[in-house]
Amino acid sequence: MGCTFCNIESLNIILENNLAFAIYDKYPVSKGHMLIITKRHIENYFQTKDEEKIAIMELLEECKRYLDKKYKPDGYNIGINCGKEAGQTIMHLHVHLIPRYKGDIDDPTGGVRGVIPSKRIY
Q: Does the pLDDT value for residue 1 go beyond 70?
């Protein structure tokens, strides 16, 4: 079966550069939720080479500009799950770029701290 993200030909790539590509998340948290994925199969962020980190960040900025024009979100969350215990389900590095919209939840305080719900509001 292989890695879902390594089968690039089967993915609908929105943007890319030499070391990474972006697709819409198959199970989006919000309208426009994108994944920035390394072309080289590595499990998590801590295995990246410096040039891959740069490529990811450049593509992240490009994706933000794209989403700003297309959906006009009010904010963003950026997240990387590293390891099963952190919630990673596909063991190929991918960065979540999640557009946020005013009113999408009652109180967005805490942002990414919400990965542990009882720790979100402080």
A: no
